[in-house]
Amino acid sequence: MDERTRLFLTAPPGTLLVKMATPNSLAFMIQSTVSLAEVWIIGQLGTSSLAAIALSFPLLMLMQAMAGGAVGGAVTSSIARALGRGDSNAAQRLIWHALAICAAGSALFLVLFLTAGDTLLRTLGGSDDILAQAATYCLILFCGGLFIWLLGVIGAVFRGMGDMALPAVLMVIGAFVQVPLTAVLVLGLLGVPQFGIAGAAISAVTTSFVISLVMLSILAKPGRVIQLKRTALVFEARLFRDIFSVAGPASLSPILTVLIILSLTAMVATFGEAALAGYGIGSRIEFLLIPLIFGIGAAMTSLVGLAIGAGDIARAERIGWTGGVMSAALAGLLGLILTLFPDRWIGAFTQDPAAFAAAKSYIGIVGPFYAFQGLGLSLYFASQGAGFMFWPVAATILRVILALGGGWFLAFQLGYGLDGIYIAAAAAMTVFGVMIAGSVKLGGWRK
């Protein structure tokens, strides 16, 4: 076992988490500005373009969550557990298995979109110009999906080694490239033709392509705990099983989470274009919590995986609770600020009074409960590291039922309208966090 791995297994959890999570959190906070900047840039095109990106956004989030979250988290967990056992050969071969999954995953997403994408966007309420813009955006995104998958999964390989800094630095560089490139392509600046919202998709794919190639080249160089070697190109069923034992159940979470967004989007669309645009602004702000908490969660996945691999379950639980409290505090503070000062930031995205009101109502109802999202999401990532996903997946399923069933009942049966949808979303978020925390408290990782 190398000295770096030994340090990760013995250093105080709090200090270690802060040290490892800081570069991640800073990088993901900066990366989050890409999403906000895209909304602002696209907002310059008008309300219909904002509505189109609101339709498209859940599909982008699904692919990113599958690549960087479900599969990426599983790859981090598998590599960390292998290193915790002292099996660097298996960890090295896992890299090739992860790359193969990237190719298969991106191809599957493209085929599914080509087969059912138009129908899905229509079902969500897209029509005419809004549908055309959303379909073009998604087509470009999924055609270049391999690079988005590579970006998420290769970063996960580095995090499995305990190297949080390199993917964080490259993520920051990518953010500073993607935002101005998006502005140029969407708005047609500097003499470049105006691509509309399709420019945002082109920018995302291009940036992912460049950064993923840089990470691959670094991974192939010697001098790291593990590296990309041709001699390790040996596929084994047991290593695929090791990844999918976590990625399989974990993949249900982003699918179900996006199902919530898609279904709520469809319900909100019945209240009109302005309501859809306002909800799109509010929900995108909420989804910024995912990359923000991922900064802490990625470190938790790695450290918990190492501890579980070494057989130290008590240490794994201490890491989980430390990271969970940190994440809840961070998400809760963000939610409080957004809730108390909505007029300071919503106006940057839209001047349409109805869209503004819809976004303000959303953040006012859901924002105060962001702490539970932070708690549940961070412990979800930690559970990936532990290799125990039953209760996090069960909590996600219950969240879907409460959000969709409760939203429909409150909005359309009791007459609460848009606010009813938002109230159900907040209640479901709370149950999600409490249930996952309860499972860890009751020994879910010891089963």
Automatic annotation (TrEMBL):
It comes from the Bacteria. This is Multidrug-efflux transporter. The keyword Transmembrane applies. GO terms for cellular component: plasma membrane. GO terms for molecular function: antiporter activity; xenobiotic transmembrane transporter activity. Keywords: Antiport, Cell membrane, Ion transport, Membrane, Transmembrane, Transmembrane helix, Transport. It is a multi-pass membrane protein. GO terms for biological process: monoatomic ion transport. It is found in: Cell inner membrane. CDD domains: MATE_like_3 (cd13148). The lineage of its organism: Bacteria, Pseudomonadati, Pseudomonadota, Alphaproteobacteria, Sphingomonadales. The chain crosses the membrane at residues 52-73, 94-114, 134-158, 165-189, 195-220, 255-281, 287-308, 320-341, 361-381, 388-409, 421-440. Pfam families: MatE (PF01554).
